[in-house]
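lol ok so funny story. i was supposed to be doing the assay writeup but got distracted and ended up predicting the structure for this chain instead. priorities right. anyway since i did it might as well share w the group, maybe its usefull for someone
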Amino acid sequence: MSTVDAPPVEIRLPPIPRDAHTAAAEAMLRRLAAAFPDAGLGITGSLATGTHGPGSDIDLVMTDASFRREVQFASASEGIPVAVVCLRPRFDADRERRWMLQSGGDVRIVSMVRSAFVARDPGGSLAEMQRTVERLDAERRTRRDELVAVRREDAASLVRALRGGTPASDEHVQLQLFDAVVDGWYLKHGLAMDTRRESERMLETIAARDAALFELLRRAVPLTHTSMAPLLRAVDLVFG
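and the output, tada:
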């Protein structure tokens, strides 16, 4: 009995000149496709736009309904570092809320999905996530006042917890307050951290438009036992 080799998996690459990074990305994508044949695979970051350099990493996103949890792992392909974010494509109300607010650690993930160049997507899961992000982006613009109110209540809830005995040095509470303040400010100004670069330069953006808030956040970062006082003043400044 003869064995017929399966046809090679089709992998799409961004329309940029081929180089060591695109070759390494293709090799990694083929390994992922062999291990997860139904997964959606995308290229993000600088390689997706052709703005990478010799020292750039390769950023990939993989979506598959079979994943039991969402993780990120580091690897290497052809000697080039690779970071792969593994996502479950299912959305519930809470996840839609977090992704529409683009708060905390979700900022980077939303940005990766939004900007991903789809290399392979047999089940359409990655494309569907991109359509969901597009819809949430539009809702974010039209429901701005409602979302500001959500972040105001988030901040108020944290303040009530502090009055109820939660330690002011609790870094988790501090981080949640920081996120609420920044998200609320961005929403009130009609802005969005819709790219990884924007999320990394948020303090610079705030400094250019709101010197008082920037000074409070500058005093709060990095988060330490002295951060709560300026954060509480920032809550009052943003939400009144």
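The chain is about 55% helix and 10% strand. The chain has a mean pLDDT of 91.
back to the writeup now i swear
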